[in-house]
Design goal:
This protein is mainly alpha-helical. Helices cover about 30% and strands about 5% of the residues. It has 1 helix and 2 strands. The chain has one helix at about 55-80; strands at about 1-5, 10. It has a two-stranded antiparallel ribbon. It starts with a strand and ends with a helix.
Length: about 80
Amino acid sequence: MKYCPNCGAQLSDDAMFCPACGARFGAPQQPYQQQPYQQQPQYPQQPQYPQQDAPVKGKKRSIVGWVVAILVGVAMVAMKMGW
């Protein structure tokens, strides 16, 4: 009979694992070997462009809309007056 070195439970001679704590027996355990550090690949730095303001489309459209509305209004008034 042998005993678990981890918890002291009694083991059968052919036991591979301790039934009490689950420790592994039989094959010698390999010590942990840290894998070599693999550095991330270095990419060329992206060129930095000056930041540009986005075009202002909303303001131009609203001005054009107002101009068109005024011209239509003036045309309607001129038609009513008989010009």
